[in-house]
Specification:
CATH superfamily: HUPs
Distance between the termini: 21 Å
Strand order of the largest sheet: 3-2-1-4-5
Strand content: 15-25%
Structural class: alpha/beta
CATH topology: Rossmann fold
Number of strands: 5
Number of helices: 8
Order of helices and strands: EHEHHEHEHHEHH
Shape: elongated
Number of domains: 1
Helix content: 40-55%
Oligomer: single chain
Largest sheet: 5 strands, parallel
């Protein structure tokens, strides 16, 4: 089965891998001639459950501040995508838990692929702290590409294991063939 890409969602919360994810999403959207949607998720600061009621009235002010900050970052992301040669079909701001908001919007928009960057390339770091990208991979109903730049990814120059997906070979088409491979097998790409 060869599933065409119609919609790609570029998801970010300002992590270190955002720039590489932007370029990855633009290349995929342009090569597949599909719509590119953006989402920026601004995490909302939480009060501890023991906070006095008098302090909880500040939640509205915190949410308003988060919306302003998020809109500014979304505007910067939109501008950066357009400058880098991408065409934005829609830009969305969400506030809350990053992974949950990304998965919810992906379902609402019925996207075929989610592209996001990663903050931590260490397997141990992700295992101990959890990872937004790992959570999106586990919960999304569509394939997810987690883009890691060489700086974020460390020195991953070893040869791929037999039977591994055909990306990471240094060829420009290898990324696209890897996406098609994952979609054919209904795997989530990580």
């Amino acid at each position: 089965m060869n599933t065409p890409l119609n919609r790609i969602l570029l998801a970010t919360c300002g992590s270190e891998g955002t720039e590489f994810a932007v370029h990855t999403a633009i290349r995929l959207a342009n090569s597949a001639d599909c719509e590119l949607y953006l989402v920026y998720v601004e995490p909302l600061p939480r009060y501890p459950s023991y906070a006095p009621i008098s302090a909880r009235h500040l939640e509205w002010e915190l949410r308003e501040g988060a919306e302003r900050a998020g809109l500014e970052r979304l505007w910067e992301l939109d501008r950066g995508v357009r400058i880098a040669g991408g065409t934005v079909a829609g830009a969305h701001l969400r506030i809350g838990e990053v992974a949950e908001e990304v998965v919810d919007l992906a379902e609402e928009l019925e996207v075929d692929l989610i592209v996001m960057g990663t903050r931590d390339s260490s397997v141990i770091g992700r295992a101990l702290k959890g990872s937004v990208s790992d959570s999106v991979v586990r919960h999304a109903r569509c394939p997810v590409v987690v883009a890691r730049s060489q700086e974020t990814d460390g020195k991953r120059t070893e040869d791929p294991q037999p039977g591994s997906p055909p990306w990471g070979t240094g060829k420009s088409s290898s990324m696209w063939s890897g996406i098609r491979w994952a979609m054919r097998l209904d795997h989530r790409t990580h």
